[in-house]
């Protein structure tokens, strides 16, 4: 996400006078390789639903509007949200219960709804 924000700012000429160089890891330009059903359904639904459901500048994944949106997505045919991490990321060989527990103490973080509209 940081790389995406940096590339967007650089393309608009913002903050360039403060940067001598940048090492950008895994730049995100598009998400065409999403394979999980939940990701695809969320991306398709998000743009059309963003203004009616959220109406907010900040996307807070721990907030009630996002929870309601996720419940609606999980009710779609073919979407299995029993294991939400796997439903979002796909199968991962390296995640175990303790790793997920540690991850969920600090994540997910809020972001701008503009970023999510761009990604979806």
UniProtKB/TrEMBL annotation:
PANTHER family of this UniProt entry?
LYSOSOMAL ACID LIPASE-RELATED (PTHR11005)
Name of protein: Uncharacterized protein
Q: Which InterPro entries match?
A: AB_hydrolase_fold (IPR029058)
